[in-house]
Specification:
The structure holds 2 protein chains of 2 kinds.
Chain A lengths: L12 E5 L2 E2 L4 E2 L1 E7 L2 E8 L7 H6 L3 H8 L7 H16 L5 H29 L4 H21 L8 E2 L2 E2 L5 H26 L2 H7 L7 H7 L4 H4 L7 H4 L20 H25 L19 E9 L2 E9 L5 E7 L1 H7 L1 H4 L5 H10 L4 H5 L1
Antiparallel strand pairs in A: 1-4, 2-3, 4-5, 6-7, 8-9, 9-10
Helix pairs in contact in A: 2-3, 3-4, 4-5, 4-11, 4-14, 5-6, 6-11
Chain B lengths: L1 H23 L25 E3 L14 H5 L5 E14 L2 E16 L8 H5 L5 E3 L14 E3 H9 L1
Antiparallel strand pairs in B: 1-4, 2-3, 3-5
Classes of the chains: A alpha+beta, B alpha+beta.
Chain lengths: 372, 156
């Protein structure tokens, strides 16, 4: 090398973010064409941890695919297994007892809070604040302990079964969940004071990283990304599944379209999830957790079945094409982060790299779920 | 000019609020555990790797039907058995009967995903989850468990 490299005016250079980079939270590579600090063009490169979950779904029986679904998104695993059991129950016509439905809703919402909490910590860490991550992990630990006592694992749960649950919840869980709700409300107020009100945080996010409603529709973005762009869509409200139609909760929608709006949506969603858990624990009926009549071998009749659920990251859908055998003919997963990610290329054009990474953080990416 | 000063004031204000919140945390109880010296009790339903259950005589309850092997999504379980003749009283007379005895029960923990399908599919209550979680090793062979041997070691 002889001397420093001088970039001529108008000349661009290529910058690789990832595949191993702390800001991408996983094995994601973004090839950026840079003009100084500004991004001219970005291209996301996927596929570094592709594991063929869809194909695995086709050459395994329906119960055998259950553990795969929780490996898609390790932060909000219960939502994904929920989609699978609902899809197969719809296909095979299995009745679910009411108690099981309520427990599913409670545990899914707890998992959603855990996922949002971790996102909150990691997002603030992306912006340079380390302390909130520690507080968020402490709160998340309470949820993990509760779920571990019920499901037996801490992260990649395999709790739901076709027709019901693996095992029932006990009084300890109910007490712990009841104690957790007021605690979490206090903590949310603390986060609001510590992070949301912080002037540095606001300056990094406000009016930065615009994702308009048209762009969301173009790329099929859903979840908090779409709700931060003013699209009032939540699968739990628009196409209620399970027992969600019996809960009273609001869907937070913000019209600012910036990174701060997406942050606010998630913070409000945690509050709404707490409301759902509170009502679920109140209404929790007694009864069995598995149906009396359940087919030994699950063989859905020929047909095409689709089930969407609202996970922590957006609407997740499973399409099962059954040919009447014990394996699915086609097992298609529609993952929310894939759609949310694909708008990044267009949205970050002309942005400064620091703002683009802040916007990437606000998309809440979980890479195993994109690459599945 | 007014905006400049109000911004400085707002910045200082949010700085002070942040410091107050973090300062309060000093007086809260410690939530972490000094891990190798102190461990947390695993919850009752914790799902570790599987373990064979013995009957009253100390033999494995397993009758080697192979239901767990078929249910396993990743093919982690392999078992073998031999048939043994034994004499038993059936309706007042002695008869020679055959039964299967487990000779090998191996779990390949490197591919196991701890889903619990094997335990759920066992009709004889012959396998359960262990509470082992300290399973670090740099050799692959350490994760090929011979569960029958583990059971005998536990008994002796």
């Amino acid at each position: 090398m002889s001397g420093p490299i001088h970039i001529q005016p108008g000349e661009t250079f290529t910058l690789n973010v990832g595949p191993q980079h702390p800001a991408t939270h996983g094995v994601l590579r973004v090839k950026m064409e840079m003009d100084g600090e500004y991004i001219v063009k970005a291209e996301t490169v996927l596929g570094y941890i592709h594991r063929m979950h869809e194909l695995m779904g086709e050459n395994r029986t329906y119960p055998q695919v259950l553990p795969n679904l929780s490996r898609l998104d390790y932060l909000g695993a219960l939502g994904y297994t929920h989609a699978h059991v609902l899809a197969v129950e719809r296909a095979a016509g299995i009745e679910v007892p009411e108690r099981a439905e309520y427990i599913r809703a409670i545990t899914v919402e707890l998992n959603r809070i855990a996922s949002h909490l971790f996102w909150f910590g990691a997002f603030v860490m992306d912006l340079g604040g380390f302390t909130p991550l520690m507080y968020a992990i402490e709160d998340r630990e309470y949820i993990l302990d509760m779920l571990e006592a019920v499901t037996g694992s801490r992260l990649t749960y395999c709790y739901y079964r076709f027709g019901g649950l693996y095992n029932d919840i006990d009084d300890d869980f109910i007490d712990a969940a009841k104690a957790f709700i007021p605690r979490m409300r206090r903590q949310l107020k603390k986060y609001d004071a510590l992070v949301t009100g912080n002037i540095i945080f606001e300056k990094r996010l406000k009016d930065i990283g615009p994702i308009s409603a048209e762009m969301c529709r173009k790329y099929g973005a859903s979840g908090p990304v779409a709700r931060g762009a003013g699209i009032d869509f939540d699968v739990r409200k628009n196409e209620p599944y399970s027992v969600y139609s019996e809960f009273d909760f609001d869907v937070p929608v913000y019209h600012e379209c910036d990174s701060l709006a997406r942050y606010m949506v998630r913070m409000d969603e945690m509050e709404q999830s707490l409301r759902i858990i509170e009502q679920g624990l109140e209404k929790l009926p007694d009864g069995p957790i598995m149906p009396k009549k359940k087919p030994k071998l699950i063989k859905p009749p020929k047909g095409d079945y689709y089930q969407a659920v609202e996970t922590a990251r957006g609407s997740f859908g499973i399409r099962i094409v059954s040919d009447g055998t014990k394996n699915a003919y086609r097992f298609k997963l529609r993952s929310p982060t894939y759609s949310n990610m694909s708008l990044f290329d267009e949205a970050c054009e002309g942005m400064m790299i620091m703002d683009a990474l802040a916007m990437m953080g606000s998309l809440d990416l979980v890479i195993p779920e994109i690459d599945r | 000019m007014g905006a400049y000063f109000s911004e400085i004031f707002l910045g200082l204000k949010s700085l002070v609020i942040g410091l107050i919140i973090t300062f309060k945390e000093f007086f809260k109880p410690v939530v972490t555990v000094p891990y190798p010296f102190k461990t947390i009790k695993m919850s009752e339903r914790y799902r570790g790797h599987i373990e064979l259950i013995e009957d009253e005589e100390g033999n494995p309850k397993c009758i080697s039907c192979g239901a767990c092997q078929r249910a396993c999504p990743s093919g982690s379980i392999s078992l073998a058995s031999k048939s043994v003749e034994y004499e038993a009283m059936v309706k007042g007379e002695m008869k020679t009967k055959k039964k299967k005895v487990l000779t090998k029960y191996n779990l390949n923990f490197t591919t196991c995903s701890l889903c619990g399908q094997c335990v759920e599919n066992c009709n004889f209550g012959a396998i359960t989850f262990s509470k082992d979680y300290n399973l670090a090793s740099s050799r692959k062979e350490d994760f090929h468990f011979d569960l029958l041997k583990r059971l005998q070691e536990r008994n002796s």
